[in-house]
Specification:
The complex is a heterodimer.
Chain A: E1 3-10, H1 21-36, E2 41-47, H2 54-70, E3 75-80, H3 88-97, E4 103-106, H4 118-127, E5 130-133, H5 149-158, E6 163-166, H6 173-176, E7 186-189, H7 199-207, E8 212-213, H8 223-232, H9 237-252
Helix pairs in contact in A: 3-4
Chain B: E1 4-10, H1 23-32, E2 37-42, H2 43-47, H3 51-62, E3 68-73, H4 81-92, E4 96-98, H5 101-104, H6 111-122, E5 127-130, H7 149-158, E6 164-167, H8 171-176, H9 178-183, E7 187-190, H10 200-207, E8 213-214, H11 225-232, H12 238-245
Parallel strand pairs in B: 1-2, 2-3, 3-4, 4-5, 5-6, 6-7, 7-8
The chains are: A alpha/beta, B alpha/beta.
């Protein structure tokens, strides 16, 4: 079994009932990837501009909800929220209660430990859903409000019952893993276009295999970037199974409180 | 058909610990994936003030390794590099020369690089040109220079008769270089940078002849299977896969 916790449909949202051309292209790629790579479940969030307005957020979540309806077996959704918006809580509630999404996605509009995020996290704890947080340490091109691992660790310590996923190994594993290693409520995904040989081994050494989940960042990255990291890593078959799907199943299961 | 990896290295990388950095590690991952050999360069040579000392180390490692060929590292800004090439040919049986403009601080229109290209052509040796070694977002301590696509375009036009292998180019960069790569009789590119899109081999083989694409992993800096699986599982003919995996000029 294989679960991809981190993919996107990219582009400006369309107008109901039609998706935009670029979003349609993302959807086609993800469906094709699901078939070709035998992925059982693909979790999607919609992204476009770094500081989306309320209309864009609503449109992107509508696109994800539409995709879930079209491909219910393959596609799951993470509700994209801009915490700077006054309607952010309503967006989250609509995403989880009406649009059948299974987690919340935070990107780069605010740091993830901004106080405007707190009520959203409290609601996610009530829902018992995971929060996928983009975090990326960059030597070049750091965005103004782009979270880093210490931001994720701050949030994790404030809310030990929140199930947090730090994406992309925090960008650079050597900056991303140590700050969260003593936060048992933080999982990591290694999605994206980086595939250094030693990142997974390093991550396992610091936090073990139970907190690593498989993600790809498709369609903006090659699926094999990430599959290759697991297959080349010094991992047992049991550890690979945990990474490929078992850890994600635990995280996504709303019936059981694991923290 | 012998399958080869055109882009593998042994040695140390000064910015992080490599856990699989020996020839044996390369051979193990190659054997497990039906790769018969490789073109190997020294990571140490990039950073040694005299790169040739790293190549002497590499020669000791490769001298009894069937199917594994020595690629010499040259910094053309260092004096007497022509002597190193001569010695590399005679003592090590080198099969190519690798340069690092981004780390050694020169551009592709440098006059010493032009001299290097003249020598390589004279000796029928290919030039291995890495466009990068790591994603610049992961730079640590130093910031290597970047190579602009316009520079590469000019370089390919300036040396139409040299055998050149572009290493670790992104799909988006290869699209920018489409005309220059097609127009050059002897240029090829490897697979180690094909990370930024889905279905890259399928898409690239629709644009470029398969003879232009060679398999290169950049192992052990990058994972091996991330790029090997691109070819193994690509929806292209077995003939196309064989061409990519077996480099011939």
């Amino acid at each position: 079994m294989l679960i991809d916790i981190h993919t996107h449909i990219w582009g400006p949202p369309g107008s109901p009932p039609c998706s935009s051309e670029t979003i349609e292209s993302s959807k086609k790629d993800l469906i094709k990837a699901g078939e070709k790579y035998k992925i059982d479940r693909i979790y999607v969030s919609g992204l476009y501009s770094h500081y989306p307005d309320e209309e864009e957020i609503a449109g992107l979540n509508w696109e994800v909800a539409k995709f879930i309806k079209e491909e219910p077996k393959l596609i799951g959704g993470f509700c994209y929220v801009n915490p700077a918006h006054s309607n952010a809580m309503d967006v989250l509630k609509k995403g989880i209660e009406e649009q059948n999404m299974e987690g919340m996605k935070l990107w780069v509009a605010t740091f993830c430990d901004d106080e405007r995020v707190f009520p959203l996290v409290e609601q996610c704890i009530l829902y018992n859903i995971p929060i996928l947080i983009h975090a990326f340490h960059k030597a070049v091109g750091q965005l103004e409000h782009e979270s880093l691992a210490p931001n994720v660790a701050n949030l994790a310590r404030r809310y030990p019952e929140a199930k947090l996923i730090i994406a992309h190994l925090g960008g650079n594993a050597y900056y991303g893993i140590k700050p969260i290693r003593n936060c048992p409520n933080v999982w990591v995904d290694f999605s994206g276009s980086l595939f250094r040989r030693d990142d997974i081994d390093y991550t396992k050494k610091l936090i073990g295999a139970d907190r690593i989940v498989f993600g790809t960042d498709m369609p903006g990255a090659s699926f094999y970037n990430n599959l290759g990291q697991v297959e080349d890593g010094d991992l047992t078959e049991e550890e690979k199974e945990k990474i490929y799907y078992k850890n994600a199943l635990r995280l996504l299961d709303r019936r059981e409180r694991i923290l | 058909m012998k399958a080869v990896d055109l882009n593998c290295l042994v040695g140390h990388w000064p910015f992080r610990k490599l856990h699989k950095n020996t020839l044996e590690d390369i051979q193990n991952v190659h054997r497990a994936n039906n790769i018969d050999g490789g073109y190997v360069a020294s990571l140490n040579s990039i950073f040694y003030n005299d790169p040739f000392e790293g190549d002497e180390e590499l020669h000791e490692i490769l001298k009894d390794a069937d199917g594994y060929h020595h690629v010499l590292t040259i910094n053309p800004k260092l004096l007497e590099f022509e002597e190193d090439i001569k010695e590399g040919i005679e003592r090590f049986g080198i099969k190519g020369v690798r340069i690092y403009p981004g780390y050694h601080g020169y551009s592709l229109d440098d006059k010493d690089l032009a001299e290097l290209c003249r020598i390589l052509k004279e000796n029928d040796l290919p030039l291995f040109l890495p466009l990068r070694m790591e994603d610049p977002r992961l730079n640590y301590i130093i910031t290597p220079g970047t190579i602009a696509m316009d520079e590469v375009k000019g370089f390919l036009k300036s040396f139409p008769d040299n055998k050149i292998i572009l290493l670790t180019a992104f799909v988006s960069e290869l699209k920018q270089l489409e005309d220059e790569i097609k127009d050059h009789s002897y240029v090829k590119f490897d697979t180690s940078g094909l990370k930024d899109t889905l279905f890259s081999i399928e898409n690239l083989t629709a644009v470029f002849p398969a003879e232009k694409i060679v398999y290169g992993s950049l192992y052990p800096l990058y994972t091996f299977r991330s790029t090997y699986f691109l070819i193994k599982h690509a929806e292209v003919s077995e003939e196309v896969k064989a061409k990519i995996l077996s480099c011939s000029w």
